[in-house]
């Protein structure tokens, strides 16, 4: 069975500084990896995905993620954080094409960007 | 284009009752998935429907069921409610069934917050 770990419950960063939210995964076969963000009292919003191809994936709102197969990681990054980036971030994995939209999510990381 | 609409937004029930939650996907989207979100268990997949057929099911008891109508709208039903069913239930839609499109993206609704007393 697949699993996702987000080792940090919370990440604090100053506005303008780079940010990294960590994610590691475990899955049989090739992984399909996703990042979603959740703002208070809202559903999740898609940020980016890795299906195949380049290891560096660019997504919405200036976010990017680096797929590292040897380290089974898919860390989310942004060069310069904004206060408005403060939210709950979820990493997710899908095992294969037969899994449909059955994603396994990590526990989430709360990002706090301070002015 | 309207987003994913879930009704009701909040719901309070007592143990033993049953509840039905509704989800209207984005126009043109044919896949609807349901997730349960709790502070303790996080986000857990319930089931996915595509073209009125259940395509995938998560590890939940049979008290949790769903269906999809010909207009892609979906309902989720929980019978014999337990205290542990208190959660935010999220519906997500996508254009195609997951894994069959390069445009892999789920669009989530704001959820139905269910409280079981």
Blueprint of the fold:
The complex is a heterodimer of chains A (115) and B (117).
Chain A: E1 3-5, E2 10-14, E3 19-21, E4 24-26, E5 32-38, E6 44-50, E7 56-58, E8 64-68, E9 73-78, E10 87-94, E11 104-105, E12 109-114
Parallel strand pairs in A: 2-12
Antiparallel strand pairs in A: 1-4, 3-9, 5-6, 5-10, 7-8, 8-9, 10-11, 10-12
Chain B: E1 5-7, E2 10-13, E3 19-24, E4 31-38, E5 42-50, E6 53-57, E7 64-68, E8 74-78, E9 87-94, E10 107-108, E11 112-116
Parallel strand pairs in B: 2-11
Antiparallel strand pairs in B: 1-3, 3-8, 4-5, 4-9, 5-6, 7-8, 9-10, 9-11
Mind explaining what this structure looks like?
- The complex is a heterodimer of chains A (115) and B (117).
- Chain A is mainly beta and 115 residues long.
- Helix content of chain A is 0%, strand content 50%.
- Chain A contains no helices and twelve strands.
- Chain A has strands at 3-5, 10-14, 19-21, 24-26, 32-38, 44-50, 56-58, 64-68, 73-78, 87-94, 104-105, 109-114.
- In chain A, strands 2, 5, 6, 10, 11 and 12 form a six-stranded mixed β-sheet that branches. In chain A, strands 3-9-8-7 form a four-stranded antiparallel β-sheet, with no helix packed on it. In chain A, strands 1-4 form a two-stranded antiparallel ribbon.
- In chain A, strand 7 and strand 8 (64-68) form a beta hairpin.
- Chain A is globular, with a radius of gyration of 14 Å.
- With 117 residues, chain B is mainly β.
- In chain B, 0% of the residues lie in helices and 51% in strands.
- Chain B has no helices and eleven strands.
- Chain B has strands at residues 5-7, 10-13, 19-24, 31-38, 42-50, 53-57, 64-68, 74-78, 87-94, 107-108, 112-116.
- In chain B, strands 2, 4, 5, 6, 9, 10 and 11 form a seven-stranded mixed β-sheet that branches. Chain B has a four-stranded antiparallel β-sheet with strand order 1-3-8-7, with no helix packed on it.
- The A-B interface holds A 32, 34, 36, 41-46, 49, 51, 90, 92, 94, 96-108 and B 4, 31, 33, 42-45, 48, 50, 55-56, 58, 90, 92, 94, 97-100, 102, 104-111.
């Amino acid at each position: 069975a697949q699993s996702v770990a987000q080792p940090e419950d919370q990440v604090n960063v100053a506005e303008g500084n780079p940010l990294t939210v960590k994610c590691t995964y475990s899955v049989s076969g090739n992984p399909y990896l996703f990042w979603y963000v959740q703002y208070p009292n809202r559903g999740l919003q898609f940020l980016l995905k890795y299906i195949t191809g380049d290891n560096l994936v660019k997504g919405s709102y200036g976010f990017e993620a680096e797929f590292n197969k040897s380290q089974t990681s898919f860390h989310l990054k942004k060069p310069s954080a904004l206060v408005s980036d403060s939210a709950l971030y979820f990493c997710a994995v899908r095992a294969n094409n037969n899994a449909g939209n059955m994603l396994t999510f990590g526990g989430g990381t709360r990002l706090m960007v301070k002015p | 284009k309207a987003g994913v609409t879930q009704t009701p937004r909040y719901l309070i029930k007592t143990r033993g009752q049953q509840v039905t939650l509704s989800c209207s996907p984005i126009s043109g989207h044919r896949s609807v998935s349901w997730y349960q979100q709790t502070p303790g268990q996080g986000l857990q997949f319930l089931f996915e429907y595509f073209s009125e057929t259940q395509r995938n099911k998560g590890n939940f008891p049979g008290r949790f069921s769903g269906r999809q109508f010909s207009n892609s709208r979906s309902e989720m039903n929980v019978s014999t409610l337990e205290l542990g069913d208190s959660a935010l239930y999220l519906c997500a839609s996508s254009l195609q069934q997951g894994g069959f499109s390069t445009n892999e993206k789920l669009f989530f609704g704001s959820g139905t917050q269910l409280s079981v007393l």
